[in-house]
Fold this sequence. Notes:
This protein is α/β, with parallel strands linked by helices. About 45% of the residues lie in helices and about 15% in strands.
Amino acid sequence: xxxxxxxSGYVGLVTGTCFAEVxxxxxxxxxxxxxxxxxxxxxxxxxxxxxxxxISRNIEKGRLHxxxxxxxxxxxxxxxFIAVGTPPExxxxxxxxxxxxxxxxxxxxxxxxxxxxxxxxxxxGTGEKIRAAVQEELDKRGNGISFDVASNPEFLKEGxxxxxxxxxxxxxxxxxxxxxxxxxQKLYKPFTLNGHPLIFMDIPSAEMTKYAANAMLATRISxxxxxxxxxxxxxxxxxxxxxxxxxxxxxxxxxxxxGTGYGGSCFPKDVKALIKSAHKNDFEMTLLxxxxxxxxxxxxxxxxxxxxxxxxxxxxxxVALWGLSFNPQTDDMREAPxxxxxxxxxxxxxxxxxYDPVALKxxxxxxxxxxxxxDDQYDILQDADCLLLVTEWxxxxxxxxxxxxxxxxxxxxxxxxxxxxxxxxxxxGFSYFAIGK
Length: 437
């Protein structure tokens, strides 16, 4: 079976590589020539555990190919996945220009039936726009080639994307074509042998499912952050509350951990896009607007704690940060709470130093020389007035408290992920502040 993946970003690379891993012949296409040349050499532009080795292995086996020429991949191709970016417009709506550009190029170049599958996160109604764009180009050619359109949203967690793809909770496919159903069943058979479900539905429902899933998870995060902030005011412990509600099977224990707010490439963008889609249809998503507002405020929570601790006197304070990426196991800093936090600290006159296991290169690209970036988690603590734990990387879980105490000018820790034990920290001579305690 031969397929093409258009877009060699996070979703496209993981999707193409995992399909190649089960024996499918995959061509990954991107307009970025430098990226494609690097990928041909096994140099991966993103950090995802295990992805670089899997890419190299499948290149060597001849199952995974990279090119900038889409037309050259369409001969005998059964399925083409559109996995290009859908960046937010200024008003928050999804920019579909790259998706439609791909659809038009497909219409200009196919010479036989093909199934066009949307993998990019797109608003409801995009499937019909793709169908119209392909058909328009075929009509210009006077060509009666048949094709089908489907939606196959991704549900990949950065840092665990390969496992999510190879052993999915569910695979959602939207299509109205029996032929497309059979093709997608064949394509995903290696991933459903262990009982992972294929869920078929119409295209608009599949498109909405992606947004609804991310919006629900974002809602749980913002809800728990609101509860945590109230716990702190009223003297309750959010860890106890979390355990209490998480034991209810109707609620469960996923995505109810308080912190510094959600970030990354999906939740912020998708919440905004869903709000905007509703607005275009004369419907206000009041709950999601509140979710977004809560999250914006939560990204400032550690700054407010630091400011209160130093009684507003932040000029010249040296603040150290552990963690820059929005989540562990990724170098992604898109919409990361660390970026809001750093901006607030710098504006207040602080000197900021930071360490992250994999995001230092990305931080350098985004932040330049505005903060000090070091490749050792302890070096940034020298003469620090406080430490802020922003991302819960595993290597931060059991720190050398004695070493930290001797290095820091003022032993104060602000734990944005609630990973430390207060009694242990205070017993070691630290001032300790968490979320919701």
